[in-house]
Specification:
274 residues, alpha/beta, 6-stranded mixed sheet, 11 helices, 6 strands, elongated
């Protein structure tokens, strides 16, 4: 339970439970419409439950177990639904795209990108959240973030570009020791094949990224997407015109940033100041 005593909506588990409803429905020979009629609900409600967009209620789970002859599987799944989710639904969708992308471009002006974070640094970020995460949530989210980084060492990793604003390199999240280790890890990541790391210096008199951080992705079927987070949520951008605008912003950010070689020199100077 969370500090307020209410179970949290677990997007990943809701999606999985909804998929099970769909499997059981089809096995019983029902369409979404015919099942909805049997339980006196509209078809859209069944569709939303199966898609993980609407939680499965206890009474509906029990009714479906009876109608679909599922031996109590849905009720048991609902009872044991974990409270802590690895990611909210929008972040889960991002991770799915991230893991299969053939190209990633990331601009960050608040913290180092998740793919480049050490475990202690990630813990410090999750520990700084307001309202606070409990210890179990911090642990779960940190482990998940470390797992994402496996794509950097794949046999055929994506082509990845990072542009990071210089103040991020000077904010010692987690304390001096944690941050010193983080900068060393960042230096090592910058030398991995297929990765470009550039820093946007504070002395720049123009800045194309003042609207905040964002990520551009190219999927295996060459779809171009953009993703941006805000204080209270996030936004996927698939519209070609909007993605084009953000791509142009990123191109300008790369032009305004130091070269990868000069960026490493800046990083080494900052590390020497620690």
């Amino acid at each position: 339970m969370n500090p307020r005593g209410r179970p949290k909506k677990n997007a990943s588990a809701m999606k999985m439970l909804g998929a099970q409803v769909a499997v059981f429905r089809r096995a019983a020979g029902h369409t979404q419409k015919s099942l909805a009629e049997l339980v006196n609900l509209d078809e859209e409600t069944i569709r939303s439950v199966e898609g993980g967009r609407r939680p499965l209620k206890e009474d509906l789970a029990a009714r479906l177990d009876e109608l679909l002859d599922t031996k109590g599987a849905l009720s048991a799944g609902l009872t044991n639904l974990p409270e802590i989710d690895l990611f909210p639904l929008w972040a889960e969708q991002y991770v799915d795209h991230e893991q299969e992308a053939i190209a990633l471009s990331s601009y960050e002006n608040q913290v180092l990108p998740g793919l480049l974070q050490t475990e202690p640094y990630a813990r410090a970020i999750f520990g700084s959240r307001v309202p606070t995460f409990d210890d179990d949530e911090i642990e779960t989210k940190t482990v998940a973030r470390m797992h994402r980084q496996g794509l950097l060492n794949q046999k055929d990793p994506p082509t990845i570009s990072f542009v990071i604003w210089e103040p991020v390199l000077r904010q010692p999240l987690g304390g001096q020791r944690v941050f010193a280790d983080q900068l060393g890890h960042l230096r090592a990541c910058a030398e991995l094949p297929g990765i470009s790391v550039q820093f946007l210096p504070m002395k720049r008199t123009s800045h194309a990224g003042l609207s905040g951080p964002f990520v551009l992705l190219e999927t295996p079927d060459h779809q171009h997407l953009a993703y941006q987070e805000t204080q209270r949520g996030s936004q996927w951008v698939a519209d070609a015109d909007e993605v084009s605008i953000m791509s142009r912003k990123y191109a300008m950010l790369r032009a305004q940033a130091l070269t990868p070689e000069d960026s490493l020199d800046l990083l080494d100077r900052i590390r020497g100041e620690q």
